[in-house]
Amino acid sequence: MGKNTVVDDVQNKQVIFKDYVNGNLQEDDLYISTSKIKLQVPQGSNAVLVKNLYLSCDPVMQFLMRKDEFLMSGYHYYVPGSPINGFGVAKVLDSGHPNFSEGDLVWGITSWEEYSLIQNPDKLYKIHHTDVPLSYYTGILSMPGITAYAGIFEVGSLKKGESVFISAASGAVGQLAGQFAKLLGCYVVGSAGSQEKVDLLKNKLGFDDAFNYKEELDLDAALKRYFPEGINFYFEQVGGKMLDAVLLNMKLHGRIAICGMISQYNLPHPEPLKNLLHIAFKRLTIKGFTHRDHHHLYPKLLKTVLPYIREHKVFYVEDIVEGLEKGPAALVGLFSGRNFGKQIVKVAGE
Q1: Which of 277, 292, 307 is the last residue of a domain?
Q2: Taking the model in full, what pTM does it have?
Q3: Residue limits of the Enoyl reductase (ER) domain (predicted)?
Q4: I need a surface site. Which of 190, 214, 238, 268 has the fewest CB within 10 A?
């Protein structure tokens, strides 16, 4: 696009953050608004202007709506009256950055709007493999994929024959963690919140077994049923009563990798754990981790996963809603398990 060309403003639909949130995120904490934007990078800027195609709904986003309640280093909190942001897939319309050109497809952090001027494009990843669905770059080939890959291959260091339990197993990260553990030759059981999700884990994603935690009156008994000899490795995403029951069922020298605790996010006070002594009794190793420390693994993830996707040996289940105006409901639905697979908002076609 010529820099001397006069470019008219265009309408830009946005999802705006109303005000800081206490407790459960509600749809009316967000609203749709329309602003105007020039589809051109300002002269002399190294920014990138993109058309957003897909936006990722991720649980961590609701933490960014709180005020001084849950400070996480390295995150930029949302500003009331401004669009929220998160991971997305976009097409470059104009660029002042030497690494990006008009027409490039990218994934990375973008705002929830039709068009975004990204001032710091150094954290955008150019998409080179387009023989897989572009939406995968919000999930299996993006942050959730890095999280699952790091948790299984690096943090967990799984070995063939180990017994593995994965909570929130049908979600964006869990479905991948289970499949990665199966590729390593482990015995894998997952928990999920409906019979439909349990059937998905067992029949489509290759888990050895799965159960609906909402139908289990005694989680300790349920885990003993599926792991009579105990659990070697637990991929933790739920917390609360599930973690407490898992501690009772870990093997000696077992490992727990924690990347989330979604059951605790909206509680005014986290549930107390009763079985912490088992950490000492069983000499457990517990490690918290996040994708943010493992983006150096991205080339390994692509090299490992792309062939499996093409050969239909790894599957990724997505729940895609169409239209930016459906974004608030899709994001809120994460916290009640309304989604079936990775929750995505499709903003536009390429």
Answers
A1: 292
A2: 0.92
A3: 23-345
A4: 268
Inside any domain, residue 2:
no
Pairing of strands 342-346, 48-56: antiparallel
Regarding whether 130 and 91 lie in a shared domain, the answer is yes
- Which residues 6+ apart lie within 8 Å of 113 measured at CB? 12, 13, 14, 15, 35, 52, 83, 324
Contacts (Cβ under 8 Å, ≥6 apart) of 287: 155, 255, 256, 257, 258
Please give the Cα distance from 316 to 205 (Å, whole number): 8
Quote the CA–CA distance of 302 and 295 in Å, as a whole number: 12
Cβ 248 vs Cβ 178: under 8 Å = no
Alpha helices, H only, 114-166: 143-149
- What is the count of structural domains for the chain? 2
Q: Which amino acid is at 163?
A: S
Same domain, 163 and 286: yes
Domain boundary among 259, 277, 292: 292
Residue 98 and residue 149 share a domain: no
- CATH number of the domain residue 234 falls in: 3.40.50.720
Over residues 135-150, the pLDDT tens digits come to: 999 999 999 999 999 9
- At 267, give phi and psi (nearest 5°): -85, 140
What is the domain range of residue 178?
143-292
Pair of tokens at residue 289: 């981790």
Contact at 8 Å (CB) between 58 and 143? yes
- Between the alpha carbon of residue 127 and those of residues 124, 130, 350, the distances in Å are 9, 7, 13
Same domain flag for 233 and 124: no
Burial code of 250-289, b = ≥16 C-beta within 10 A, e = fewer? bbeebbbbbbbbbbebeeeeeeeeebeebbeebebeeeeb
